[in-house]
Amino acid sequence: MSYDRRAARPTALGAAPARREPASFLTAAEVAAEMRVSKMTVYRLAEELGAVRIGRSLRYPAAGVDQYLAGGGS
């Protein structure tokens, strides 16, 4: 377990700063399985799903995928 020095440092009011939940990202294969489509379809929807390029791969924020599915797609 790592120790985050910044999170343990008290603020001016004496309270520890709020921690953000890490963003959840999915691969194209995970999104394809959830949506029951091919990976190529997921790649075509990359912009609509809010894909982010990390290195050479695309990652899809879970919130963006959920929003797309809730809206019924386009």
Automatic annotation (TrEMBL):
Pfam family, one: HTH_17
InterPro entries to which the protein is assigned, alphabetical: HTH_17, SinI_DNA-bd
Single GO term (MF): DNA binding
Residue span(s) of domain Helix-turn-helix: 25-71
Xref: NCBIfam families: excise (TIGR01764)
Protein name: Excisionase family DNA binding protein
